[in-house]
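Practice problem. Given the sequence and the SMILES for flavin-adenine dinucleotide, write out the predicted structure.
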Amino acid sequence: MGHIRSPLDHPVGGGGTGGRRPDRTVVILGAGVAGLSAAYELERLGVPVEVLEGSRRLGGRIHTFRFGDDADAPFAELGAMRIAAGHSNALRYVAELGLAEELRSFHSLLADKNAYLRTAESYVRLRDAARQLITEIRDGLAHDGYHPETLMFGAWLTLVVDAIAPPDQRQDLRQDLRSRLLDHADHLNLAPFVRDGGSAFDLHGLFAAHPELREACRDPLRGFLDDILVETSTELFRLRGGMDQLVRRLARRIHGPIRRQHEVVGLEARPDEVVVQLRIDGRPAVRHCSEVLCTLPFSVLRGLRLTGFSDEKLRIINNVHYVPATKVALHCREAFWQREGINGGASSSGGRVRQTYYPPIDGDPAQGAVLLASYSVGEDAELLGRMSSAARYAAVLADLATMHPQLLRPGMVLNARSLAWGQFPWSRGGCSVHWGMDPSQAEEQRMLAQQPEGRLYFAGEHCSSRPAWIDGAIESALDAVSRIVMHVPATLPEMPEEPAPAELAG
Ligand SMILES: Cc1cc2nc3c(=O)[nH]c(=O)nc-3n(C[C@H](O)[C@H](O)[C@H](O)COP(=O)(O)OP(=O)(O)OC[C@H]3O[C@@H](n4cnc5c(N)ncnc54)[C@H](O)[C@@H]3O)c2cc1C
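Answer key:
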């Protein structure tokens, strides 16, 4: 890698474009996993990069929060927490960054049968959930002639959708079950998918063997089903010690500067350059760049000053749908849930809490344990997100204490941390989603989202075929890098340094 010239941010009104040297540095906006992967890949191809990040932190929606300064302090994954076995881009990076030995199984909802399901009246252990759910499903059915395995399927699908999906989709599922899903399923031989003597059901096996069953679901539930099945799969991994290792290791491999607190406030796409308007330490600055890769979520981008963009591009920036997501983590004195026989997995906690995860302790147990008390998406997340953080903790604690009264013991909860991604200024949404789209519409959205605007390129999970996943963010970065290197000659000799006096100030 040749010498990389340090950037020159010049103040508003100072210098214009005159005196600029031709510069082949690609300026990358956003230091989430998409921005950092793109920087890493571009440098590997000999293209100099500079990364501008608005916040004080790298990693974006990969956000491991540590309750303490020690490296082995208990931590909460406030953003991404698992990687699916089929997510080859993410797993390739894990291996390449020397993290393969830190991969551990991630235990999701349904993994620990001692975890709980909230029912209309109370809570039951997941191992007893089927009986309870079948009774509830039966109440709303037109007839009682279904095979027991069919009701078991309905019960298990209701369980996972209730835990994970936003409220409207929970409603859709109940209607779909009653109107056609159970009828479809009743014609299939479901016996091979019943597990544990009738107390569990292999939804993944069934949907894999009978993809036509998915078609019997209405949108947007149909689109969401894939995510639900991945989220409850047994083939998930976590990184022992925290997902942020992925980001930190990537950042360490990047030679070009990564500048924090460089907030993008406007972008102008011109035929021969991109003008980036910035706020650096509260002061405005303007940067004229020959090539820019923007990885800011469209939910953020749509609030910035955008000029020189085509109507089509503005439309897609404004229209990509984001769902909010909120996580609330509690640092507890001890992993009290283990005394109740819960050693991982998650409870379907209902109410505003939705899902409660019991992460393993990677460090010294004497430092306590973290309970991911609440993980919600959609309206539930929005509701919690709009509260002050104090009100949010109080609401989650009040809901969850009926299931885990130990939380109310004096000194049990040492600390709390939450993140409402829908309200977070650096994301303004949890993730983009393709729910309600058929595959061709999703592909069209991906192409439009990726489409460069002159010398301004785009990447980020919202520009991928796998939105809402790290894997998609990396996929989009690789796509953008391929486009960029077609236009930026990677093997050009380094340009001689040229003084640009008008641009030096600031
Ligand atoms: C609650 C939650 C749970 C998730 N769980 C999983 C999971 O288990 N597994 C999984 O694979 N994926 C998961 N995801 C999705 C995954 O985290 C994202 O798909 C991925 O991290 C997105 O990366 P990105 O680089 O596209 O965007 P981001 O990570 O959002 O990166 C964008 C960057 O741009 C910066 N930025 C924003 N505005 C500006 C501005 N004006 N100026 C300069 N910089 C700016 C941001 O600070 C950020 O660093 C989850 C996401 C959430 C929210």
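Check your answer against the key. Residues 167-186 form the longest helix (20 residues).
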